[in-house]
Design a protein that fits this description.
Blueprint: H1 5-18, H2 22-37, E1 41-50, E2 56-67, E3 70-75, E4 78-82, E5 86-90, E6 95-100, H3 110-115, E7 122-129, E8 133-140, E9 147-155, E10 160-168, E11 173-182, E12 204-206
Parallel strand pairs: 6-12
Antiparallel strand pairs: 1-2, 1-11, 2-3, 3-4, 4-5, 5-6, 7-8, 8-9, 9-10, 10-11
Length: about 210
């Protein structure tokens, strides 16, 4: 029995997409190499969230410091600290929640976006490019992820992420815009060590 042409075309497209686009990979690998070579990264980020109807849900300004697999993220009074194994999330008031890096793997943090290590988690394809920018679509391999796709805009001249649009499972979107990035930041190692003494005494810690 012959497969109808339209079904054949559909499965051919799926098969093509499942293969990681070499043109996109070359661009993404440049980002990853630059991050890997850096001993400290300092980033200023703006995040704009919209619901599935396109209504704005809020804007956040985030400062992010990265060193290899460790990072420190601050948004207002809220803080997220990762020492490479454990993530400490301070709500800015009176609670700190702890989780392992593996437990947080279903979400897409700004640190993961900037790290450029997309190869093991995504299929990807190049949607278009100019002399200075490239647009790349990422589809997570693990369908349990909390998001369904990510669209990156990459600065090809700087080999750096310019912005990322994240579409979640409810069709809400978050635009992550990189306002500034410094790949030569000098960051002390103790910045990424959890220090209970720096938080108010009434703060509770939950595993």
């Amino acid at each position: 029995m012959r497969i109808p042409f339209i079904l054949l075309a559909f499965f051919t497209c799926l098969s093509t997409f499942a293969q990681k686009d070499p043109s996109a990979k070359a661009i993404l690998d440049q980002i990853g190499a630059k991050v890997k070579d850096s001993k400290g990264i300092l980033v200023s980020i703006q995040m704009v969230s919209k619901n599935s109807q396109g209504k704005a849900m809020g804007t956040k300004q985030i400062n992010l410091k990265m060193k290899a697999e460790k990072y420190y993220l601050k948004q207002g009074l809220m803080e997220i600290l990762c020492d490479g194994a454990i993530i400490y999330n301070f709500d800015g008031v009176n609670t700190i929640s702890k989780s392992s890096v593996e437990e947080a793997d279903q979400t897409l943090s700004p640190q993961k976006l900037l790290a450029g290590n997309y190869d093991k988690d995504f299929n990807y394809r190049l949607l278009g490019q100019t002399a200075s920018n490239a647009t790349i679509e990422l589809i997570p391999l693990d369908k349990r992820k909390s998001f369904q796709k990510v669209t990156l805009v990459v600065d090809k001249i700087k080999s750096a992420l310019s912005s990322a649009s994240i579409l979640d499972k409810s069709n809400n979107s978050t635009l992550v815009k990189v306002l500034s990035i410094n790949y030569k930041a000098v960051l002390a190692d103790n910045l990424f060590l959890f220090n209970r003494a720096k938080y108010p005494k009434n703060v509770e810690i939950f595993d």
